[in-house]
Specification:
The radius of gyration is 20 Å and the shape is globular. It is built from 8 helices and 26 strands. Helices cover 21% and strands 41% of the residues. It has 2 domains: 282 residues, no CATH class; 88 residues, no CATH class. Helix 3 packs parallel to helix 4 and helix 6 runs parallel beside helix 8. Strands 14, 15, 16, 17, 18, 19, 20 and 21 form an 8-stranded antiparallel sheet that branches. It has 380 residues and is of the alpha+beta class. The model has no long low-confidence stretch (mean pLDDT 94). One of its GO terms (molecular function) is kinase activity.
Length: 380
């Protein structure tokens, strides 16, 4: 497996790294993460297709780009991969053609299903897709129980429109998936939040998918406000500082859920993922050092799941909420992952509207918010 990295920055393309043995014609997969404004320019896709004529080209908009140990805004990062012993198959669909996000996830997994399927990478629209439903559709049709990971595209901190595409200029509403095939791909995954829980555990007593209405039979929004103090005046923006931990009924697994919007009239809260009735939630607050340490823990977790500590490539997908909170310290969480992988492992990635990865205890993928999620690939 050979990797080349490029970046479009300050209005010009630069070569960041090219592994010995890499050839443009031998490249089979190109991952492109960048500013929505930049990646929809036709000349970007034209250049990529010309440079990598035999590759599947996956493009997604971001809330920030990651390349090696640095974080950027308003750039494009390109990671071109030439596999030696791993096959690929791609699939893409648009949400306008499906009744639900669940149906879209199911359709994608069925298109990629094969006896030698080894792993799936997903890059989804982040504005119109219900991430929880998408993940449920993927899981229910993951017949081989392979590792499935990826993320939801971003739109900086605007939360308006995201762009994704497969072998085309990216556009809204697309969900892209890449299947990896064969016995020579080692895949690692790790995901960690690093938030502090506080306050009592409460039960979701009324919700409609990702809209939370009641906790313990009381208004969820009013209960939430009681813990915010002066931050209540800055809602909904301040909600990024206080996500909720969610433990589904009958499960020990905990995921983080970010609040996207509040409705004072309905006294409701809209989250980036579903909030199932019967689930248990607690408030969370930011601990800067723990958020940064969580990135290193996620990196260590990738070696636990595939026993390869120095992979051929690490893909980091972190949450826009973490970026807005850490601000000037944001590069520290990428550096924390780099500390584990070392200087010679190529790193790419982006800041997202949701992260997709299995939890440690399960091969089923989950939708995460406010986490650092890492996928590693190695050919063996």
């Amino acid at each position: 497996m050979f990797v080349r990295q490029q970046q479009f920055i300050n209005k010009e393309w630069t070569n960041v790294h090219t592994a010995p043995g890499f050839t443009n014609t031998g490249c089979s997969l190109v991952l492109v993460f960048g500013s929505g404004e930049e990646i929809i320019k036709p000349d970007v896709y034209t250049m990529l297709k010309s440079e990598y004529p035999n590759a599947e080209i996956v493009i997604g908009s971001t809330a920030g780009e990651i390349i090696n140990e640095s974080v950027y805004d308003d750039t494009i990062v390109v990671t071109a991969i030439a596999f030696e012993r791993t096959g690929l198959r791609s699939a893409s669909l648009n949400m306008n053609d499906y009744v639900s996000s669940y149906d879209a996830g199911a359709a994608l997994m069925k298109l990629l299903d094969a006896e030698d399927l080894a792993s799936v990478f997903v890059l989804s629209d982040g504005a119109v897709v219900n991430g929880s439903e998408l993940v449920a559709g993927l899981n229910d049709n993951n017949n081989k129980k392979v590792t499935t990971a990826g993320g939801l595209a971003g739109d900086a901190a605007r939360f308006q429109q995201t762009f994704t595409g497969l072998n085309a200029i990216p556009s809204p509403g697309n969900v892209v998936a890449i299947g990896f095939y064969g016995a020579h791909l080692a895949v690692g995954h790790g995901s960690m939040g690093g938030w502090d829980e506080f306050g009592p555990e409460r039960t979701i007593t009324k919700a409609d998918k990702n809209v939370l209405l009641e906790l313990d039979g009381k208004s969820a929004l009013e209960l939430y406000k009681q813990y915010l103090g002066d931050y209540v005046n800055d809602l909904p923006a301040s909600a990024l500082l206080f996500p909720l931990s969610l433990k589904d009924s009958g499960s020990k697994n905990v995921v983080v859920r970010t609040i996207l919007a509040i409705n004072e009239e309905l006294s409701s809260m809209t989250f980036a993922g579903n909030m199932p009735e019967g689930g248990k939630v607690r408030l969370m607050k930011a601990n800067f050092d723990k958020l940064i340490d969580a990135s290193n823990i996620a990196a260590v977790g990738t070696a636990v799941t595939n026993a390869v500590s120095k992979p051929d490539l690490a893909i980091l997908i972190s949450c826009v909420g973490r970026k807005l909170i850490l601000q000037q310290r944001i590069s520290e969480e990428v550096e924390a992952a780099r500390d584990f992988f070392g200087a010679n492992v190529p790193i790419t990635g982006f800041y997202s509207y949701g992260e997709i990865s299995p939890l440690k205890e399960s091969m089923s993928c989950e939708l995460h918010n406010q986490t650092m999620t890492i996928l590693t690939l190695s050919e063996i």
